[in-house]
Amino acid sequence: MQSFLDVVGEVSGWIWGIPMLLILGGGGLFLTIALGFFQFKYFGYIIKQTFGKILSKNVEGEGTVTPFQAASSALASTVGASNIVGVPVAIALGGPGAVFWMWIIALLGCASKFTEVVLGLKYREKNEVGEYVGGPMYYIEKGLNWKPVSVLFAFFLMIELVPSIMVQANSVAGSAVTMGISPVITGIVVMILVGLVVVGGIGRIGRVCEKLVPFMALLYLLGAFIIILMNITNLPSAIALIFTHAFIPAAPVGGFAGAAMASALRWGSARGTYSNEAGMGTAPMAHSAAIIDHPVRQGFWGIFEVIVDTLIICSTTAFLVLTTGLWTQVESSQAAGIPAMAFSSVFGPAGGTVVTLSLLLFVISTIIVITFYGEKQAEYLFGLGFSHVMRYVYLISIVIGAVGGMKFLWQFLDILLACIIIPNMISILALHKDVVELKNEFFASPNFFKKDINI
């Protein structure tokens, strides 16, 4: 007979196969059509309103943090170890064509991320200490009057973040062990660092993330760009492989076992979906604190997240893997180590240190933000006082996870995550007309889009 944990593993594996990809990918396609393909139509304008205003402090409206601080906080959660180690695994199991489907799901995901961020801003409210709070629990309750669903969403997310933080902490400890640091020491240090940040609330989290996220992303991207430039002659063939094997099976070569088109679609879609968190309902919690003059303007920063996370960082890792040719030389079971191998081959031992440091920073930033997310669920369910209790539960779970404790809880991680994604996707699809109305208002009003393009 199968053990209980084996059954849990099979159930989570099934849910996170075709069903979840249909929910997230299909939902993104529906919203893209409903919103008039706006992420393509206004792409240049969206870029100017986000990348073009990263350093701008001139913001209008009400809120707790700047638009970029809110986006950096949300981005800190999405940019994680999977950006470095997840992409080569997708290529190893799905072939180069997986990158094409990763791009497609990201472009569709822009509509999902935009929708949930806009809804988060529309239905946000002030808490007991005057900070703006929002997210799926608020727009599900206030927009749809589905209080039981909003309570279940908040409860499942509050619980899910305990094993999630443990897994992240264990990843940090695993990286630190390669540098000779004990998991116990790593756990305690990370707990203190995270605690010092989250105790200051969204304001301090925003200030830390607006400095940490660009630094950690640029550290990794700079090294990766140098390696890609050293192999620039292989770039055209790498691009050709991506588009060719998105539709044609990739034949076995070297350590690569070959992959059918279905595998490319499965692994590419999964990487795009899981990496940028579009449709998961987490980002609106950070964005809802932003100082804004219109919800749609902050929605653009949700698209900014997808572009940075998937179209820039994940794509850079993909080109690093393909142009070096290491994907054909390494067995799929060791694919996660390809970026470290590439860095070490060019920069020597210092290269491996850069990748390890990047992983450490990526994961620590993720823990900081998801601890904040967990506090917001506790606050919604039981009030501000209980959120402080959960803060310390999350901080303690960092040390437990770092030393590899309570691993049986990790088995439930994907199922709990599905329990928050499904109600969130159903809700944003049900409320999409609100977002269509706000989008049309923003682009038709002389006070927003028309004013911007005349400046």
TrEMBL record:
Pfam hit, one: Na_Ala_symp
**Major localisation:** membrane
List, alphabetically, the PROSITE patterns matched.
Answer: NA_ALANINE_SYMP
Per UniProt, subcellular location reads as: Cell membrane
Membrane topology classification: Multi-pass membrane protein
The cross-references to InterPro entries, in alphabetical order and at most eight, read: Na/Ala_symport
Keyword Secreted assigned to the entry: answer is no
Q: Name one GO cellular component term.
A: plasma membrane
**Spans traversing the lipid bilayer:** 14-38, 74-94, 100-121, 149-169, 181-200, 212-232, 238-262, 306-327, 347-373, 380-403, 409-431
One GO MF term, please? amino acid:sodium symporter activity
Alphabetized, the UniProt keywords read: Cell membrane, Membrane, Symport, Transmembrane, Transmembrane helix, Transport
Domain of life, per lineage: Bacteria
Q: What family does this belong to?
A: Belongs to the alanine or glycine:cation symporter (AGCS) (TC 2.A.25) family.
Against PANTHER family, the record matches this protein to:
AGSS FAMILY TRANSPORTER, SODIUM-ALANINE, TRANSCRIPTIONAL REGULATOR, LRP FAMILY
Name of the protein this chain belongs to? Amino acid carrier protein
Q: Identify the species of origin.
A: Biomaibacter acetigenes
